[in-house]
Amino acid sequence: MDAIYKLIQHYAPKIPDLLALALAVLLPIAIVMGVFLTVFALLTWVERKALGRIQNRRGPNRVGPVGLFQPVADGLKLLTKEDIVPAAADKVVHFLAPVLTVVPAFMVLAVVPVAKGFVPVDLNIGVLFALAVSTGSVLALFMAGWASRNKFSLLGAMRSVAQVVSYEVPMVMAAVVILMAAGTLSSVGIVEAQRGLAGWFVFKPWGLVAFVIFQLCAMAEVARTPFDLPEAESEIVAGYHTEYSGFKFALFQMGEYVAAITMGGITVTMFLGGYLGPGSDLPKIGWLVSAGWFFAKLGIIVVINIWARGTWPRVRVDQLLGFAWKLLLPLALVNIVAMAIWHFASNKLVGWGASAVVLAVAIVALVKINTGQTFEKRSYRFIS
Amino acid sequence: MTIVFLTLSAITVLGALLAVTLRNLVHCLLALVLFFMGIAGHFFLLKADFLGAVQILIYIGAVAVLILFAIMLTRNISGTEGGRGSLGGAWWLGVGIATTLAGAMCVFVRRSDLVSKLPYGATEEGVVKEIGKLLVTDWVVPLEIMAVLLTAALIGAVVIALEEEKKR
Amino acid sequence: MSVPLGYYLILGGVLFAIGLCGALTRKNAIAVLMSIEIMFNAAILNFVVFWYYLHNGALTGQMFALFAIAVAAAESAVGLALVISVYRHYKSVDVNEMRSLKG
Fold first, then answer.
1. Nearest Cβ partner of C20 from B9, B81, B101?
2. Which residues of chain B have a pLDDT value below 50?
3. Residue A355 counted as domain residue
């Protein structure tokens, strides 16, 4: 922000101060919104194409070359559809919910460093801010489900709330390790702490474990398919957005996809070295190379998401919650201990080995404890 | 600065007022979230970024969701509430007490010589790091007590909520 | 630049009074708890305000606010568990109906 302000003053000193300030504030927002909305449109296309490939079909291929304009067609279709509000719905909350789903997704973008020297706001609490704001979406989903006055919507909303709250905990615990390693909460600071050969946090034993936990939790948090119980179409129609149509439905889809992208961006920043990569420090074109690196890594995360969606079946509710509380959370806690061992080890090799051993033992033990138990037959209790 | 303060304050007060007056409990909760957001905004305005993030994380991410679950578990799903007034018909008594208190506080604030005080000065960067250091040095005993308290609250909450279940 | 301290103090006082009003007049136990949360937040806001206006490089105000937030979280967890427990017993969360001391 400051850098842009200075650039404007340098190259166009005639522009009045207030206008320059406004430009400096609005320009990064416009760039970020534009870029990420394009990425979002592309993502829907990539996802449908890849899913088609996994399911042995072609995916969209009518609109434009290889179906590339399918998102535009979809957008136009949804815009022109009738906007139906159920008669019994809570009108105000029903209207607010889709809007509020999109807001947190975009707010997280404010702290993601997209390229070297380009982060909309370099808060000194960056990652904490991202984690905090992304929880806000859960209330929007609840509002959507509750305001629809539909049992399926409400079930989806309550599932979504339970899921997000459960997965929030291991997610933050996994992030703690990274914050300990980087010694800062600022997203730029975390990226800069990953400099050097194999400096990315994912290459350390604790980093790898934290990365896997964080990635799983991120998938659960934005309700991607193995964890998409809130909108499980075979059980509860479409969950919280059953009663939405037209543009509001499009907003829900957008919120979900943008949240997936921003979560991927946070993952890249925290574990995969963000914008760092060979050539990201070149004097003139460094920002372009680093942006390329960032989006390439983001692409990898996105492809992993799509791949998981295409290949894994949906989990059950008890499996979903048990997985978070019985496996991910204890593992994340052990991971913090492993990080402490690494930090206080006499030399790096000892630290590497010791933390790897601790984590391996923990993983084996937790998997042993958690598998092999059979569930009792479900019993139903009816309360009059 | 004054405009930002006034806008935020208006949002906060509106949220609080709606939270205590609306009939529908879920609406109350949403108004309460608005109020929490307003308070978080004030924290950011007061250069306490860390506390602002903590406020969002704990109040909106945890407390609001807890209240939500309590509403869903205790009332009919639509969350409507019948009449009002815990003091029988004398709800005006509560309003009166609150108004008197607010008036008294305003009077005392006006009399105080702190009223026109301006901020101590620009707060430097690295407050977060400082908080972290203080938490494990000077404030380590309160921190540990807090950990014990939170654990006790967690176990206690589970035990209280499960109690009836066991007797069946 | 910044508003004087008095503005914030009056804001805190008004918020506290609103919360008190809610706690005294609401019938539903959950609504009473929500009002108490409002009062808590008003107090925490005052901690931060006093820190911002009167600190001498110390962070005591922020620390107090941090601990107060943690205590409030514990309080709401236990409070809501109690409400659920009471609801199981009386099939109501109306504070007027919780009158008997015997379980």
1. B101
2. 77-78, 83, 85-87, 168
3. no
14-53 in B: which are within 8 Å (CB) of C? Answer: 16-17, 19-21, 25, 28-29, 32, 35-36, 39, 42-43, 46-48, 50-51
Phi, psi of A228 (to 5 degrees): -95, 40
* Together in a domain, A68 and A164: no
Average pLDDT, chain B: 79
**Domain termination site, one of A25, A45, A72:** A72
DSSP at A314: P
Spell out the long-range contacts of A76-85 with Cβ–Cβ below 8 A and sequence spacing 24 or more: A78/A246, A78/A247, A78/A249, A78/A250, A79/A246, A79/A247, A79/A250, A81/A245, A81/A246, A81/A247, A82/A245, A82/A246, A83/A245, A83/A246, A83/A247, A83/A248, A84/A243, A84/A245, A84/A246, A85/A243
Note whether B120 contacts C22, CB cutoff 8 Å: no
Distance CA A260, CA A131 (A): 13
Q: Which residues contact C55 (CB under 8 A, 6 or more apart)?
A: B120, B123, C61
| pLDDT tens-place string over residues A219-255 | 888 877 777 777 767 777 777 777 787 788 888 888 8
- Comparing C-alpha atoms, which of A56, A53, A43, A47 is closest to residue A225? A47
ipTM of model: 0.86
Chain C residues in contact with B66 (beta carbon < 8 A): 76-77, 80
d(CA A312, CA C103): 50
Please tell me whether residue B133 adopts helix, strand or coil conformation.
helix
- Model pLDDT for residues B36-49, shown as the tens digit of each residue: 989 988 888 888 88
Asked if residues A154 and A227 have their Cβ atoms less than 8 Å apart, the reply is no
Residue A175 distance to chain B (closest CA, Å)? 14
Q: Please, do chains A and C touch (3+ CB pairs < 8 Å)?
A: no
Contact: C20, B156; criterion CB under 8 Å: no
Q: Are residues A7 and A125 in the same domain?
A: no
Is B53 within 8 Å of A128 when comparing Cβ atoms? yes
A36/A30 Cα distance (integer angstroms): 10
Split into its structural domains, chain A has a count of 2
Amino acid of residue A23: L
pLDDT for A141-166, tens place per residue? Answer: 888 888 888 788 888 888 888 888 88
Interchain contact C40–B (C-beta under 8 A): no
Considering only CB atoms, A124 lies closest to which of B49, B56, B64, namely B49
CB contact under 8 Å between B160 and C78, yes or no, is: yes
Asked if the Cβ–Cβ distance from A93 to B128 is below 8 Å, we say no
Name residue, tokens 């962070």: C59
- CA–CA separation, C8 vs B13, rounded Å? 12
Domain C5-95 has CATH 1.10.12.10: no
